[in-house]
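Support case: user asked for a sample of complex input and structure output to validate their parser. Sending the pair below.
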Amino acid sequence: MPNIIETRLPTGVKDFLPVKAAKLDYLQNTLRSIYRAWGFRPVAPAILEDLAVLELGLGSDLRANTFRFDDRQTGRLVAFPPDITPQVARIAATRMRDMPLPFRLCYNGRVLRHTEQRLGKDREVFQSGVELIGLSGPEADAEMIAMAVKCLQSVGATEFTIDIGQVEFLRGILNDLPLDASQALALRTAITAKDLSGLQKLLKTLPLNDQQRTELLALPRLYGGRETLDLARKAISNPASQKALDELEKVLEVLTVYGVEEHITLDLGEMRGFDYHSGLVFQGFLSGFGRDVCSGGRYDGLTERYGFSSPATGFAFNLYNLLFALDRELDERAEEGTDFLLFSSGQDKAPAQRLAATLRNQGFSVARDIIERDQTASLDYAKRMHYRYLLVLKASQEELTLIRTADGESSSVTQDAIESGQFKI
Amino acid sequence: MNDYLTFALPKGRIMQDSMELFAKIGITCPEMDDPGRKLVFENRDDKLRFMAVRSQDVPTYVEQGCADIGVVGKDTLLEQEKDLYEPLDLQFGYCRLVVAEPKELLQDDDPAGWSNIRVASKYPNMTEKYFAAKGVQVEVIKLYGSIELAPLVGLTERIVDLVSTGGTMRENGLVEVETIAEVTSRLVVNRASLKTKHRRISKLIEDLEKVIEDGPRISG
């Protein structure tokens, strides 16, 4: 009877066993290859930050969710970052400030966030993302979106949408309204939920003029395809919002050049995103999966909080969400099995060891079945542990047997064929 | 699979009301006429699927994306605060969430003087929020049914519960003191579904808007 020791994990974090972990590896590697193809170079931010420094870049939303504790060496508070973008902004604004702009940077890393204790909310978020620092304007915004589309295609997504919002468009409508904090919160809540009837009821109680009312009432329905832009132009007349729509139109033109417009939807009433966002923002959704798999957008004011003013934009994938959304598609793509389990009979193990080394030199993945057992048991082990073939080497025989674990089909191969490099599977 | 539009509807009266309303815009499910013990119903021709769930579970199914669309009372939405779109007030299922107490207590009770009270409710979050906003410290005892019983047996002095006609409360010697919220059924939509199926869902919302009756009504 095995000794069962209770080994629970805190809620909101997970272990991944080989099958899933291989898929995570595949996602990271594939995304990194796209980042590289677009000229992005890696940065690796620290896992701990001084809380006071980190908080320069965090809005109240992320601040409230930060894991923090005492640093015994200094008595100061330190924190695990809840998001990597502010860290990259800090690195760009301080360590890299004397290098020529723009910076194209990418990263991979896990962050921690406190979440409400409820089903399906992760406290550990595995991010893979890019930051484009030092560029403003539609071409940079479009580059981010086109890249996000390319990334999703490269990991096997077919039906998906990148949903674009515009923070400045909303600010044009919401700024300078004569509302107190609780009225403003109620207004945001209704708009975020696209709760048109709630908004109508609320507006009756607020001290607003007709233009303000008309613009606010349009927001819950300003989402959909490209036609949303025309609807917005008709419904919204303030200059700041109009200017934001002009910018958005230019971005859409560039996206047409990149040939990704079929994956684009607009949502001009979307108020999500982090406190540091400004301008164009976006989220990626896969058909049939209820949460976003990536999010990002412009954050022109963030590097200035670290003493270096520069426009910037970027996005990050939530790799766990991406993994769960594409789990089935990744079965085929993420090659997680090992090519050969090498089984040998007889006392002299040297031939098997040499053969394994030869195969590895040729680029195959090979493990030796070191345990003393019979061939049936070895094949059974190979099947359960995701080896593709059992390779059977019998003492002083030139011919080897190759058994495919998937269907048990066997064939033979000579040692000569392997050593001369002609052997393929 | 993904070209289906999936609805999560609360079993019972609200499900009937919902299907009657949906029928007006051509959304039907003949399979539901003979429900038996089935929980999932399909209309294969129109690629529609309907799940019968507990009303408190509707927001969960929709937030997690198992259903694209749901119908659920505003009380449940306020209590659970899930991240959902809530584009339409369907106007049926009207009731109110109220604070109530025994008639005898009311005679010399002044809500303005409450500082520390015990309340029984199915809605602990909303109850705490409501009283916190008033500056009243509240100890909520969470119950799952027959809330009216709590003051009768001395579990708490007051309750927070839904009333539609008020019959049950009257029969148990309780009177309403304050209204916390007016409640009707809402159409809720998963965030990703609204984006990835926006043509179908926008059309559904537009069509429903035209047939929803003016003014809230009690379902019974």
